[in-house]
Amino acid sequence: MASRSTSVKVTLKVSSFILRLLMNIVFYVLVVVSVIYTSNAAFDFTYQIYGPDAVDDTAHARKIYIKINKGDSTMDIAEKLELYHAIENKYSFALKVKLQELVLMPGTYEIYSSMTYDEILEIITDYSKSIVKDDELEDIDAGPESISGDEASAGDEASSGEGSSSGQGNSSGDGAATGQ
């Protein structure tokens, strides 16, 4: 009977050791996977802020009209840019604006989906690059448009005054609408 009791004890000790070893292996594998995933996400986010990150390449670029209203927060503008696929991540764009202490100017701007964050910021921080000034037009068609299409678009209509005098502008609640 004593030999049976010792064999059960040995079996329990071996089983306990194997179970602890497997639990440790699973734990360390999960830690390594989470470190790799977190590092990858941190790299992607940092690359979006500091690297030349663009949504499309030059061959597939789309023209986008973005209207920035007075009082729009940086996050509101970043959400519009992300909605129209001008940027990859609204959080990285907003952080880049905050880190560089930039002021986004109200107006309507023409940008392309192939532009980097720096190129977009160079345009929307310079009021003289606005195709339509806030005091010239209250309602303009804005949004993504294909470059390969007709170049005479919402921006040309706005500069000739056709969109505002008839009151037929296509506007969504956030100040931007798709072009025709």
List keywords for this structure.
single chain, 180 residues, mainly alpha, Dna Ligase, domain 1, 2 domains, 3-stranded antiparallel sheet, 9% strand, disordered C terminus
Write a brief structural summary.
With 180 residues, the protein is mainly α. It folds into two domains: 1-50; 58-165, Endolytic murein transglycosylase (Dna Ligase, domain 1), CATH 3.30.1490.480.
Overview of this protein structure:
With 180 residues, the protein is mostly helical. It has 2 domains: 1-50; 58-165, Dna Ligase, domain 1, CATH 3.30.1490.480. Helix content is 49%, strand content 9%. It is built from 6 helices and 3 strands; from the N terminus they run αβααβαβαα. It has helices at residues 2-50, 74-83, 90-99, 117-124, 154-160, 162-165; strands at 62-68, 107-112, 143-146. It has a 3-stranded antiparallel beta sheet with strand order 2-1-3. Helix 1 (2-50) packs across helix 3 (90-99) and helix 2 (74-83) packs antiparallel against helix 3. It starts with a helix and ends in a 15-residue tail after the last helix. The model is unreliable at 137-142 and 146-180 (pLDDT under 50).
- Arithmetic mean of pLDDT: 79
* The CATH topology of the largest domain: Dna Ligase, domain 1
Strand order of the largest sheet: 2-1-3
C-alpha Rg (nearest Å): 28 Å
CATH superfamily of the largest domain: Endolytic murein transglycosylase
What's the total count of β strands?
A: 3
CATH 2nd-level architecture of the largest domain: 2-Layer Sandwich
Q: What is the CA–CA distance across the termini?
A: 91 Å
Number of domains: 2
Oligomeric form: single chain
Shape designation? rod-shaped
CATH C-level class of the largest domain is Alpha Beta
Based on secondary structure, the structural category is: mainly alpha
Helical content, roughly? 40-55%
Question: What is the chain-wise order of helices and strands?
Answer: HEHHEHEHH
The number of distinct helices, counting runs of at least 4 residues, comes to: 6
Strand content: 5-15%
Query: How would you sum up the major sheet?
Result: 3 strands, antiparallel
